[in-house]
Amino acid sequence: MARFAKLFGRGAASPPRVDRIVVGLGNPGEGYAATRHNAGFQVASRLAKRSRAEFALKAADSRIAEGAIDGVRIAIARPQTFMNDSGRAVRKLLDRYRVDPAALLVIFDEVDLPLGKIRLRERGGPGTHNGMRSIVSAIGEDFPRLRVGVAPTDPAAEIPDLVEYVLTPFAADERATAEATFARAAEAVEVAVREGLPRAMERFNG
């Protein structure tokens, strides 16, 4: 009986109620804050600011900002597990808020897109991103995601060491474009939450 009481909420506090969970991927710690790999954290921070929400809550191996966008209740999370174990935090977030993966939107850096480009997708595999591999391993592929380009804008430029590249900060001549990209990505998430993913894809994937 205890098991069924837990399943149906009897004998325990009701879960916090949100309609969507937005997760920005990155690595915790000041040493990683400005790196390309923390683009997801950067977008999550800007989205929280736009939503007038603060990362005041520590739960589900994450820092969480709870707020709303035009009446849609959202939890914006920055996992604190380090990138390669992001799936553990995402699984705990889904359990905490008792929502399905379809209510999730994950933001992450993408080395197959040039800086300045973003792409929304409804679902799909993890590609080469270790954080996404961890999440897909934990919850499957059926969740929306926003890829934030961090590759060189020069298509002829090569990345000799991928790990070193994503763990270094943006160059001085890239910072303005990076800031504009983070702001545009936060706006894309707002539109996805407010008007639906198809509308946001139509507007921002061009």
Give a brief rundown of this model.
The chain is built from seven helices and seven strands; from the N terminus they run H-E-H-E-E-E-H-E-E-H-E-H-H-H. With 206 residues, it is of the alpha/beta class. Strand 2 (57-59) and strand 3 form a beta hairpin.
Number of domains: 1
Strand content: 15-25%
**Tally of separate helices:** 7
Q: What are the secondary-structure elements, in order, as H or E?
A: HEHEEEHEEHEHHH
Strand sequence of the main sheet, in spatial order? 2-3-4-1-5-7-6
Radius of gyration: 17 Å
Unreliable segments (pLDDT under 50, ≥5 consecutive)?
1-11
Q: Report mean pLDDT, rounded to a whole number.
A: 91
What name goes with the CATH superfamily? Peptidyl-tRNA hydrolase
Shape: globular
CATH fold-type name: Rossmann fold
Helix content: 25-40%
Name the CATH class. Alpha Beta
- Biggest beta sheet summary: 7 strands, mixed
CATH architecture: 3-Layer(aba) Sandwich
First CA to last CA: what distance?
53 Å
Give me the count of strands. 7
Helix/sheet category: alpha/beta
